Amino acid sequence: GESVGLHLPTLSVQEGDNSIINCAYSNSASDYFIWYKQESGKGPQFIIDIRSNMDKRQGQRVTVLLNKTVKHLSLQIAATQPGDSAVYFCAEGGGVGGTSYGKLTFGQGTILTVHP
Amino acid sequence: NAGVTQTPKFQVLKTGQSMTLQCAQDMNHNSMYWYRQDPGMGLRLIYYSASEGTTDKGEVPNGYNVSRLNKREFSLRLESAAPSQTSVYFCASSGVYGYTFGSGTRLTVV
Fold first, then answer.
1. Measured between beta carbons, which residues in chain B are less than 8 angstroms from residue A43?
2. Given A7, A42, A89, which is nearest B42 (Cβ)?
3. What's the alpha-carbon Rg for chain A, to the nearest Å?
4. What is the C-alpha separation between A1 and B98, in angstroms, rounded?
């Protein structure tokens, strides 16, 4: 299992800066990776995902990079806004039947704080 | 709005009491999951149901049971609650195009 602790990594940025949140995953056989945003008192909210056959995927203001060689995943948020302040989790998983999402293994999470 | 609905949102139990957490999804997803989240940690999988009629253990199944009642509903039962089960519980469902979480049940066992 993953090592976990009570002290999450933190990232503080100024409004308008770009943010990069990193994640090391454990299973080289994972089919896909997902980034989630979690605000206080709420469930995880899907941000973006990437399949293992890709190394980059872009969404609106977000980019996910996958480096399978070193089992590293990153989330880049452009022009970070105060509303982006939250805990960000990466998750890895394998498909059910090869096409659907399946059970996920979550990373520890990173607290992003955006200062106005 | 389409999504995953969990009940109750909050619950306090005494040690040894039992309860069932309810979850329903209206996205016609085949797979459903129960996760728990402890302070400062990511979510950990308790049980999952890849399709109607099947259930399997996840990473932390001890002390829990589940029932996939039909395609829409997946319940989590604590037969004899323990303080170590104090946590926030999230239900989720997934299909080909998405993976959606409910808003969580905050459970405290005293």
1. 4, 90, 101-104
2. A89
3. 14
4. 25
